[in-house]
Fold:
Amino acid sequence: MHADDRVVQDTDPLRPTQGRGGPAVGSWVWLPTETLQPLIDVLRTDGMRVIGPQVADGAVVYRDLAEAGDLPVGWIDEQDGGHYRLQHDPEAGFFDHVVGPHSLKNFLFPARETIGHFLREDGTWRQVEDLPEEPPLAVIGVRGCDLAGLAIQDRVFLGGEAVDPGYHRRRESLFLVAVNCRRAAATCFCHSTGCGPAASAGFDLCLTEFPGRFACEVGSERGAAVLAKLQEKVPLIACTDSERAAAAEQSERLEQAMHARQRVAGEPAPRSLNTEGIRDLLYDNLEHPRWEEVATRCLSCTNCTLVCPTCFCSSVSEVADLSGDAVQRERHWASCFTLDHARMHGTSVRSSTASRYRQWLTHKLAGWIDQFGTSGCTGCGRCITWCPVGIDITEEVAAIRATSPHDEGA
Ligand code: SF4
Ligand code: SF4
Structure:
């Protein structure tokens, strides 16, 4: 046990932690909701670009955040297949919405990024090292499923021989303030994938919301350093053992309800995904008639891949100026739902929607395991919500499992 942990656990609950150099990693402190603004100020004073959830364009999205008042307090999101609607709820706290269309992917692996500049001088091309400096990112409101998505993208962009320089740069300085979910949407199935609803690792600070205050777990030395600076502005109170237990219990209750597929706080029951033997189930069913059936509904619109926090396909194009002497190399998101994505030798090897949907789902839930040692799905449910025709990955797998000659409806 860390010395500071002992202080936190044995101390009078009202004893401030001031004067001890800030709370230690692994300790918990209370942050009244009014401390969100000073927390944002500390991060910004440290030179970070702070991102947080905000209501915009009818959804909760990540945006630059300077004012705690811009957080979506009092809003919840109703989600289902092809359906997203914000609702005002006077009982809702700062983070009672769940995940929106944005994820950490939008910032670490942006949809469009300039990755090189080239100039032609005296008949030869030279690369110009003038890519803009980016401030370190701090993201507030990250969920357990998104931390899992980040860990998966880390394997993709950093885990092999080729390390992606832009992702690496942003990831190294990333500061994460996670939130433990208090409610689940009908599209959530993070309990099935083991990615939520609690944020278990990979954060600097993690908030569990209670009326008027947050129990804040310190997850890293950087998190402790930020709280030490916050403590210079506002007194911090250590959580007692029973208060920590109450915070953990809040997440456990939600997880149990999700496993039992119960309605939580009036919400429809969340979805679930049976992941047992899923790799072999999908590889054994490449000719299953369900692929043709889903293709009668799928528009090949690419939405599911764009909102998925782990999809990583991209394409690179070079854009010349009018003189032809300056070229910008740009990387942009691509999708396996487009014909061009599988174009080889002048033709697409996945010319049907059925083959493209099969590619996406089978790669996500089976091929990914072979490539990266993990499923590509965190159970965030975004692909279900943002599919315009409400195609549901959990329903498609269940339909294949139910009629698989290799899997007798397990
Ligand atoms: S496949 Fe769907 S549920 Fe799974 S991580 Fe991607 S968007 Fe989320
Ligand atoms: S599954 Fe839905 S979101 Fe994905 S490409 Fe098909 S229609 Fe679009």
